[in-house]
TrEMBL record:
Native organism: uncultured Thermomicrobiales bacterium
Any one GO molecular function term: intramolecular oxidoreductase activity, interconverting aldoses and ketoses
Name of this protein: D-erythrulose 4-phosphate isomerase
Keyword Acetylation in annotation: no
NCBIfam families membership: PRK05571.1 (NF004051), rpiB_lacA_lacB (TIGR00689)
EC class (word): isomerase
EC number: 5.3.1.34
Biological process (GO), any one: cellular response to carbohydrate stimulus
Keywords (A to Z) from UniProt: Isomerase
Length: 168
C-alpha cells in the first residue's frame, strides 16, 4: 500500500488592507492536494481588526504545532512579520520576490511568510505562495547551525521574560 503524503496545515490571516489578497491566496491553497487551510480572518476590507491580533493568532497556531506554516497579509507585510516574530519559536519574513521566499525557508527555516497587498499584485503573490509550498528546510544544511543559534537566542529571551501577572 502506498504511503499518503502528510497533510500540510497552513494558517492564514490578514488585516483589512490584506483581506482581499488573503482570500485569493486562501482559496488557492485550499485547492492544493494535501493542504488544509485554517483562516484566522479578517473576512473582508470592512473589518477593522488591527493586524497584530491576527498576526499573533496565526503565529501562535504555528508555535503550538496546530499549523505547519502561516501566511499573513497586510498593507506591506512588515507589521505582520514584526508581530509574528514576537511569538517564541516562530520565524517570519516579509518577502516580495522568489529568491527571498526561497531563502527564507532554505536558509532560515521561516515558518511564516508575510506579504504586502499594497506592494505586490495578486498574480505575483499567487506565484510566490506556490513556490513557497515547494521548499522545506534541510536540518543537515549549512544553515542548520545558524538556525539553531537563532532558536537558542529565542529560548534565552523567552526564559528571561516574565509571564503575565496573575490576577490573584
Amino acid at each position: 500500500m502506498a504511503e499518503r503524503a502528510k497533510r500540510t496545515v497552513i494558517a492564514v490571516g490578514a488585516d483589512n488592507a490584506g483581506a482581499a489578497l488573503k482570500n485569493v491566496l486562501r482559496d488557492q491553497l485550499a485547492a492544493e492536494p494535501d493542504v488544509e487551510v485554517v483562516d484566522f480572518g479578517v473576512p473582508d476590507a470592512e473589518n477593522n481588526t488591527a493586524y497584530p491580533y491576527v498576526g499573533r493568532d496565526v503565529a501562535e497556531a504555528v508555535a503550538r504545532g496546530e499549523a505547519d506554516r502561516g501566511l499573513l497579509v497586510c498593507g506591506t507585510g512588515i507589521g505582520m512579520a514584526i508581530t509574528a516574530n514576537k511569538v517564541p519559536g516562530v520565524r517570519a519574513t516579509v518577502a516580495h520576490d522568489a529568491y527571498s521566499v526561497e531563502r527564507s525557508v532554505l536558509s532560515n527555516n521561516c515558518q511564516v511568510l508575510t506579504l504586502g497587498a499594497r506592494v505586490i499584485g495578486s498574480e505575483l503573490a499567487k506565484r510566490l505562495v506556490r513556490e513557497w509550498l515547494t521548499y522545506n528546510f534541510d536540518p543537515s544544511s549549512a544553515s542548520a547551525e545558524k538556525v539553531a543559534l537563532i532558536d537558542r537566542f529565542d529560548a534565552e529571551r523567552s526564559a528571561a521574560v516574565p509571564g503575565p501577572a496573575s490576577a490573584d
